[in-house]
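for the recovery benchmark. tokens below, seq after
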């Protein structure tokens, strides 16, 4: 789905990736394991080559966001970037279940840690708050995970938010049971609220542009 000349949404099972189309290609998040081929088919569909995929930026370490990163790296030799706080989880040196706050989330994360351990992947670029990469400003928004980030495209006034919030039923805020620290999550929400954006693009949940909800 084309959002602008520069930004595309690739619909995956349960969530989506975003493709930044420039001289080279940048992908934001990769969905669950098994989504690499769908992402590469979309790249070909818009007339680009998979070899042009230069960078994958992960908004956080949960498996539904970084699940296909390892396969995409194998197929395209792209580089992977993530906030330094989440790098140990993505590389398999720490586990998502360590940060779970509820029994439900601990069980979910523990199963993911066990069943998807082969999807751990080396991170090439460690990001910090304020970094700029692929013309996207990194905004460290801890709370969902320790290294959750949002990415701000200042030129288009679009903000990519990962799971920092999931708009639903017309509300900007909904408590996320998989966040490790809800107070930090709330503080991060207050921070991005102050940013001048016209488009709010979560990896999970509905997108909206100019404060009007899209259908997907």
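predicted aa per position
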């Amino acid at each position: 789905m084309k959002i602008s000349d520069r930004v595309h949404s690739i619909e995956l099972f349960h969530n989506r990736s975003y493709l930044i189309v420039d001289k080279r290609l940048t992908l934001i998040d990769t969905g669950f394991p098994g989504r690499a081929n769908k992402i590469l088919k979309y790249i070909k569909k818009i007339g680009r080559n998979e070899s042009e995929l230069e960078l994958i930026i992960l908004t956080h370490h949960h498996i539904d966001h970084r699940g296909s990163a390892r396969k995409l790296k194998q197929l395209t030799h792209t580089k992977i970037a993530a906030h330094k706080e989440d790098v140990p989880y993505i590389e398999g040196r720490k586990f998502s279940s360590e940060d779970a706050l509820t029994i439900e989330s601990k069980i979910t994360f523990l199963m993911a840690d066990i069943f998807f351990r082969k999807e751990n992947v080396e991170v090439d670029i460690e990001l910090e708050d304020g970094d700029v990469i692929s013309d996207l400003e990194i905004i460290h928004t801890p709370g969902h995970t320790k290294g959750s980030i949002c990415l701000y495209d200042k030129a288009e006034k679009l903000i990519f938010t990962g799971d920092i919030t999931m708009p639903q039923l017309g509300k900007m805020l909904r408590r996320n049971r998989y966040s490790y620290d809800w107070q930090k999550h709330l503080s991060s929400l207050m921070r991005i609220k102050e940013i001048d954006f016209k488009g709010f693009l979560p990896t999970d949940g509905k997108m909206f542009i100019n404060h009007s909800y899209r259908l997907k």
